[in-house]
């Protein structure tokens, strides 16, 4: 009899939802949750229901990790190559430790107007060279007097007294240090390759001005004299292929005016830390 028929474990609603012929309008079939087991050995392809297999998830994660790691390595290598040029750009842009600013498009034309009511500042020129460089390096003028905002042109002379071609590179600094942020050079020969043939003599121009904002700085109100110093070194190639002064680190730091600042000692000269017993 029909009333003795055993009850089904699934309700009619559940059986209807599991029907393979059921199609709901506007809902893709692959978005439904399927309780059927996935066929094994799919070869790494996407499952029929639109979900990723565990192998695919791990493969995507490993690929993302590899891409991020490669990007970090490339950035680190690029930063190591650009460390020295970026440091020089930072010093030239901020006037750090007596490094004059190199002005190109930073100052508008209306700012390069002399302040006639201000007193003149006497700029003295100094020239030094390394003992390893057989050049004669001298300024053509001892000093010039300029007004804040007034551009001025000066010249240095360099002569190669040796019998071979030599490449030199120059560093510079300004004293007193508090004037450096306002001392801007439009054109100069510093930190650039200067190749002189045997016995050649050249004139090196320098176009500079003192920013009139110096008049608003209380620490510079009593400054009447400024010294611009250049030091020429014989150039050499470092391990990155960049030109650098062929001199000791102490000599280069002194030419830049950094010898007045405290620097951390190199790791090789640092004292050994006693180990805990």
TrEMBL record:
<dbReference type="GO" id="GO:0005507">
    <property type="term" value="F:copper ion binding"/>
</dbReference>
<dbReference type="InterPro" id="IPR007533">
    <property type="entry name" value="Cyt_c_oxidase_assmbl_CtaG"/>
</dbReference>
<keyword id="KW-0472">Membrane</keyword>
<keyword id="KW-0812">Transmembrane</keyword>
<dbReference type="Pfam" id="PF04442">
    <property type="entry name" value="CtaG_Cox11"/>
</dbReference>
<dbReference type="InterPro" id="IPR023471">
    <property type="entry name" value="CtaG/Cox11_dom_sf"/>
</dbReference>
<feature type="transmembrane region" description="Helical">
    <location>
        <begin position="65"/>
        <end position="84"/>
    </location>
</feature>
<dbReference type="GO" id="GO:0005759">
    <property type="term" value="C:mitochondrial matrix"/>
</dbReference>
<keyword id="KW-1133">Transmembrane helix</keyword>
<dbReference type="GO" id="GO:0005743">
    <property type="term" value="C:mitochondrial inner membrane"/>
</dbReference>
<comment type="function">
    <text>Exerts its effect at some terminal stage of cytochrome c oxidase synthesis, probably by being involved in the insertion of the copper B into subunit I.</text>
</comment>
<protein>
    <submittedName>
        <fullName>Cytochrome c oxidase assembly protein COX11</fullName>
    </submittedName>
</protein>
């Amino acid at each position: 009899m029909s009333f003795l028929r055993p009850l089904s474990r699934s309700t009619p609603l559940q059986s209807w939802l599991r029907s393979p012929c059921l199609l709901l309008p506007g809902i893709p079939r692959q978005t439904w949750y399927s309780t059927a087991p996935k066929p094994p050995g799919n070869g790494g392809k996407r499952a029929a229901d639109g979900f990723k297999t565990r192998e695919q998830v791990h493969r995507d994660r490993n690929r993302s990790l590899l891409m991020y790691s490669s990007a970090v390595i490339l950035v680190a290598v690029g930063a190591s190559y650009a460390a020295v040029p970026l440091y020089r750009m930072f010093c030239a842009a901020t006037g750090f430790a007596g490094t004059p600013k190199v002005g190109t498009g930073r100052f508008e034309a209306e700012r390069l107007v002399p302040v006639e009511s201000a007193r003149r500042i006497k700029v003295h020129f100094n020239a030094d060279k390394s003992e390893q460089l057989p050049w004669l390096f001298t300024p053509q003028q001892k000093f010039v007097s300029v007004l804040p905002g007034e551009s001025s042109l000066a010249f240095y002379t360099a002569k190669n007294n040796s019998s071979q071609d030599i490449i030199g590179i120059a560093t510079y600094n300004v004293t007193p240090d508090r004037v450096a942020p306002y001392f801007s050079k439009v054109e100069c020969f510093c930190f650039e390759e200067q190749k002189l043939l045997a016995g050649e003599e050249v004139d090196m121009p320098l176009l500079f001005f003192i920013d009139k904002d110096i008049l608003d700085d209380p620490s510079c109100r009593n400054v009447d004299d400024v010294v611009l110093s250049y030091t020429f070194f014989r150039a050499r190639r470092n391990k990155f292929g960049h030109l650098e002064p062929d001199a000791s680190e102490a000599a280069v730091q002194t030419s830049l005016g950094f010898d007045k600042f405290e620097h951390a000692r190199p790791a090789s000269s640092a004292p050994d830390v006693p180990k805990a017993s």
